[in-house]
Each structure stands twice: as structure tokens, then as C-alpha cells.
Amino acid sequence: MRFRHPDGSVVHLSYCTNVHPAETLDGVRAQLRDHCEPVRRRLGRDRLGIGLWLARDAARALTNDPAELRALRAELDSRGLEVVTLNGFPYEGFGADEVKYRVYRPDWTEPDRLAHTTDLARLLAALLPDDVTEGTISTLPLAWRTPYATDPGAPRTARTALTTLAQRLDALAELTGKSIRIGLEPEPGCTVETTADAIAPLTDVGHERIGICVDTCHLATSFEDPGTALDALTAVGIPVVKSQLSAALHAEHPHLPEVRTALAAFAEPRFLHQTRTRTAAGLRGTDDLDEAVAGGVLPDSTPWRAHFHVPLHAPPAPPLTSTLPVLRTALTRLVGGAVPLTRHLEVETYTWQALPAELRPRTRTQLADGIAAELTLARDLLVDLGLKELP
Questions:
Q1: What is the DSSP string of 303-333?
Q2: What digits encode the pLDDT tens for the residues 200-225?
Q3: What stretch of H or E contains 158?
Q4: Which of 50, 243, 250, 343 could pair covalently with 214 via S-S, beta carbons 3.0-4.6 A apart?
Q5: 3 state SS of 198
């Protein structure tokens, strides 16, 4: 979906396909047929943007066979789909029964991360619509905090990899005329947990094609104020390459037994749900929601937030809620000003099948309805900010 910003530029809205597990190229094609095109039809649109997730095997298949890449581009066109952004964070196995810490490997100290991201950049340059010259890719925020923090050589290795990537992106732009930018995506528990944590390493790399991806669920989970965070990035010239529109799980009164019971229903075995609370002494947290719910680890006199991407249009029932207000505030700062801070927005609720059983979509139809409802909400927010929806 495309929108005209009052400054004349085009802002793209898409939804991320990592909600549909697929490791192979055949699986990606099935996503387009079974999920993406039905969502487009529900929205009554001739064109829908998708934030494509290409796992390692799918990316390699496309890299190794130009004919397959041309065929995928043609299929996107025929189904009314377009790609301006990729989710390059998960490497493989994102649809596994247990993902947890595996999603952070390989990290930016490992050669496979650089090789995979380079492949993704080249693929995206070929998949961009003819009238679009800029693509974006979100990626791992360097590494999970351990063992990175105990390896004195890790920061230098990661910096070298990102610098090499930037040089490759420069060469790609010169060759193709397509500018591909990469955004580190701060996430609780990682080396770069907050936008503030991103400033030093990104300043160290110091390249316009390497910036930040602001995920509004992660921003909220870490209790970051959107205005303060975005102002700090702007002040030092770090670009917001893209933003993922998502909402975290919020518990206002975690000391109450009924709140603990409600939270426990969201503790599940597939993904990590890092949980945070803000105290006078600073941020406190656990790596997963079940650790927090068990008690005795986190102070419970202040609200808790958990890294669980809840559907934008359907916050959980009381006594829980979502951090949709943080998303609204962030979006206002991102695209509500005279000039947009980013032109790529991506709805990223990948946890539909991890929701408590009574909230999960049971059919493809129900899932498509839910994704369409999220995109409708995002569209309405953009229109309210003065952007005009384009055909």
C-alpha cells in the first residue's frame, strides 16, 4: 500500500510474511498464493506491499538461479504484490516448534550473517518495482548479549562486517541504480537493546546505508519514549531505515493474581517473550515471560511489558492490554511531521499462532481477515496524519 506524504514523497506500508512459515522457494510461492493475495483481495486493493522474509535456503535458491528470481518477480506482479522491504532478521527455522534463542544466530560476528544479508540486498534490488529505487532490510541488532559481551573482539568483528556490507551496498547501487539500506533492529536482551544502544555502533560504522529499524513493540517493551528516542537518532544523523508497526503486551498491575494468570496464558514454547519493568533504579527484566510470571524475579509494583507481538486491532482482554498508544505516538513522530523520518512501514505480527488457543486463527480465512484488519488500522492512522492513500 502506498501513501502520498504532504511533502510529496511516497510512504510504503506492507505486512511481514514471517507470520507464514516457509524455508524454501516453493514455500514462499505458497505464501503468495495462500495468504498474501487473499489479504490483498480482502482489502479491495489492486496492489499490496509485503515485507518478504526469505530464509537461507529460499534466498540461496534465488541467488543461484536468475531464472527463479525472474519468475518470482513475475509472480509478485501477477498477484498484485510488491516488495520494497525484506525482513533479514531470522536466518532459518523461524517456523520451528521452538525458536527461542536460535533466532539470534548467526550474528554479526559470524561470516554467514554477512553473506546472507549481502544475498538479500542483491535479491531485493532485483525485486523492487520498476518505479522504486530504494529498498530496505531489517536485521539482527548485532547479537544476543551473550557471548558477545564477554568477547573483546566481537565489536570490532561486527563493525568490520557492517563496513564491508556498506561497501557492497555502494557497489550494488552503482551497478543497479537501486539503493538498498540496512537497519539494525533493537530488541530486548540483545547487544543493541534500545535505540540509545544503537547510537555508538552505528556512529562507529558511519555510513548512510546502515541505519536503524524501529520496531514499536520493542521500543515499548523497553519503556522508551518514542519522541526522545527518535530525536536522539535525528540529532546524530542516524537514519530510520524502516519501522515495524507492532504492539507489545502490557500489564498495568502485575502483582494481582488475575493478572499473573492472564499473562501466563501468553507464555508459550516457540518464541522468547522478554519481559521488562521500569523501576527507580532502572530497567529490570527477564529473558522470557514464564520466568517473570513464576514470581520472585521482577518487581511487581510497576507495570510489566512483554515482547509479544499482539494483533494491532485486537488488544487482549482486561486485565491486560497492548502498547498500541506507543505505536500511535511513534508513528506520529515518524511520518506526521513536515518530512517523514522513514518511508517504509511494516506491520509485523508474527505471533498469531502463538496466541492463547482461544485467540488463534483456526483457518487461513481467519488469519487473512486478521492481517487485513491490522493493515486497515494502520492505513487509518496514516490517513489521520494527513497522508493520502494512493491507488
A1: -EEEEEEE-TT-PPPTTEEE-HHHHHHHHHH
A2: 999 999 999 999 999 999 999 999 99
A3: helix 154-176
A4: 243
A5: helix
